[in-house]
Structures are given as structure tokens and as C-alpha cells.
Design brief:
The chain has two domains: about 220 residues, P-loop containing nucleotide triphosphate hydrolases (Rossmann fold), CATH 3.40.50; about 70 residues, Alpha-Beta Plaits, CATH 3.30.70.980. The chain is globular, with a radius of gyration of 23 Å. Helix 3 crosses helix 4 and helix 8 crosses helix 11. It is an alpha/beta fold and about 300 residues long. The chain has a six-stranded mixed sheet with strand order 5-6-7-3-8-9, with helices on both faces. It has a four-stranded antiparallel sheet with strand order 11-12-10-13, with helices on one face. It contains eleven helices and 13 strands. Keywords: Antibiotic resistance, ATP-binding, Nucleotide-binding, Transport. It comes from Nocardioides lianchengensis.
């Protein structure tokens, strides 16, 4: 569905160029949900715009649905669905007309568009809001309407840029259910997200990008196994132990795990058995005021690969 080899994207004039994507290889297979993860400025959006055939390739090879976007852009875009990060709904139209008019842009006959609109409103659970104004919808409803609009041409490939940003947990889970059903129906999904739990829930495979490069690739479980441990013990120390700096405390427990990460308010000890770590910490006379043992997550992998420093 998507094949990239040495894909590059450069902005700016000669001599003052900025390379946003620095030669990446990507394969997206039919019927899977494929994710792009990375901090701001990693190159995710630049890559998605090239895949959407709206931004020209600066170097390397890119094929979308077997076609070259430099030559077959209109044909590619006719078979894509795009859900942008920001809702771009027409607030002057009601919910139904937002779908109907968008469908007509693809040259779909009126009767067929009407049928598709009815199907999509039911699919995203907005049938009762068909005549409502867009501005009267909740954030979750607007996102569902945006996804419905991206499906009006029955795309082979659906691109979703931060699909659940700003939604409450209930709305996110409803949206996840809709996306899972699309994947079951054979639609290939390409997703960018900042939510690690979302990537774990939705993505069959994903890549982690940083500074324009792919730094890791695999299924969520593969990445956790490769770059983290089975469990993490979080240790928070009180005033009595604060005579020792966090760095000094980390040295005292360093041999209890594969690695120890020092944060301002706690230590993270990565190991295969978090409960054993906590028990041995107490045996050494250290008394954390709070402990938490949890399984390693994709967020642990993400932060290890891209760092905890804020990226502007």
C-alpha cells in the first residue's frame, strides 16, 4: 500500500536547506494499521503529507497504491481518505450536508452519495444529528464526522493525523472502536499519534521517528521486548532519604535492574520482576514512601529512544 526507499523531504532555498525527513524506508501492508510515532519535529507530518500526495518528494522513492505521486497524484488522492489533525468541517452546513457535498467532489452520483451518507452516519453514530449544525456538536462528534467524511469515497488507504487529540477518554474509546471496525473491514490505516496507549491499542506495526530518521520499527510488543524490560518499579523517596541525592540513591539500587532512570520525583528501575526489586530495596534499609510496579509500556520505549527533553 505504501513503499518508501530512502525517502527525503527538504525545505528552504539552496544553501539554507532544512532536511525534515532524512532517507527513511517504510512498508505499509494491505489491511494493517501502521503507526508513526515521534516527538514534535521528528518528520511525521512531512512524511504523511508526502504519502497523501500533497507534498512533493525531495529524494528517494515513494509508491502509494503502486503509483508514483509525482505522476499519478489525482488518481492516488481519489483512493485515499484523509483525517487531518484539525477538524476542517464546513460550519455553514449541517452534519449531513458536510458528507453529501464532500462526496459530490469525487463525482459520485447523487443517489449513491445519499446512500453512503446514511451508512456513514450510522457507522459513526451520528444519525440523530444529521440535521444539526456542526458548531453544536461535541469534540468527539466532530472527530467522528471528520472520519466519516474521509470515508465517503470508500478509500483503500485511510490517513489519520492525531485522530483523538483533545478528546475525553469516552470519546477516544468510541473512536478506537470505529477504527478497529474499519480495519476489520479491510481498510488500511496509517496513523500518527502522541498517545502511546493509542498506538498499543490500534497499531499492528509502527515506526518511531526522531530528527527525521526511523530509530525503531516493529509491533508494540516487539519494541517493548527489544528496548525495555518486562516490568518497571517506580520508587518515590521521602525527606529522610533525600539527604542522599536521587543520583546517590540510584547508585544504591543500580544492580537490582537492567537500568535505572533518575527523574526529579522518583527512580525508575527496569527489571523482569518489579516486586523483587521493591523487596530488595527494603532489605537494604531504603524506605521509599511510595512504590508502584507496572508493566513496561510503549511510552517507556518512546522516551528511551527519543529522550525526555521537551522538543519545540
Amino acid at each position: 500500500m505504501v513503499l518508501a526507499r530512502g525517502l527525503r523531504k527538504t525545505f528552504g532555498k539552496p544553501g539554507a536547506e532544512f532536511e525534515a525527513v532524512k532517507g527513511i524506508d517504510v512498508d505499509v501492508r494491505r489491511g494493517e494499521a501502521f503507526g508513526f510515532l515521534g516527538p514534535n519535529g521528528a518528520g511525521k507530518s512531512s512524511t504523511m503529507r508526502m504519502v497523501a500526495a500533497v507534498s512533493p518528494v525531495s529524494g528517494g522513492e515513494l509508491r502509494i497504491l503502486g503509483m508514483d505521486p509525482a505522476v499519478d497524484g489525482p488518481a492516488i488522492r481519489g483512493r485515499l481518505g484523509v483525517c487531518p489533525q484539525e477538524d476542517t468541517l464546513d460550519v455553514e452546513l449541517n452534519v449531513r450536508d458536510n458528507l453529501y457535498i464532500y462526496g459530490r467532489y469525487f463525482g459520485i452520483p447523487k443517489g449513491e452519495v445519499n446512500d453512503r451518507v446514511d451508512e456513514l452516519l450510522e457507522f459513526v453514530q451520528l444519525t440523530e444529528k444529521a440535521k444539526a449544525k456542526v458548531e453544536d456538536l461535541s469534540g468527539g462528534m466532530k472527530r467522528r464526522l471528520t472520519i466519516a467524511r474521509s470515508l465517503v469515497n470508500r478509500p483503500d488507504l485511510l490517513l489519520l493525523d492525531e485522530p483523538t487529540t483533545g478528546l475525553d477518554p469516552q470519546a477516544r474509546h468510541v473512536l478506537w472502536d470505529r477504527l478497529f471496525r474499519l480495519k476489520q473491514a479491510g481498510v488500511t490505516l496509517v496513523i500518527t499519534t502522541h498517545y502511546m496507549d493509542e498506538a498499543e491499542q490500534l497499531c499492528d506495526r509502527l515506526v518511531v521517528m526522531d530528527k527525521g530518521l526511523i530509530v525503531a520499527e516493529g509491533s508494540p510488543l516487539q519494541l517493548i521486548r527489544e528496548h525495555s524490560t518486562r516490568e518497571v518499579a517506580e520508587l518515590r523517596f521521602g525527606v529522610a532519604d533525600e539527604g542522599d541525592s536521587h543520583e546517590a540513591l540510584a547508585e544504591k539500587v543500580a544492580d537490582l535492574g537492567d537500568r535505572v532512570e533518575v527523574l526529579p520525583d522518583r527512580l525508575l528501575v527496569y527489571s523482569e520482576d518489579g516486586d523483587e526489586v521493591v523487596a530488595k530495596v527494603h532489605e537494604r534499609g531504603l524506605t521509599p514512601v511510595a512504590t508502584l510496579v507496572r508493566r513496561s509500556s510503549l511510552e517507556d520505549v518512546f522516551l528511551r529512544l527519543t529522550g525526555r527533553t521537551l522538543v519545540d
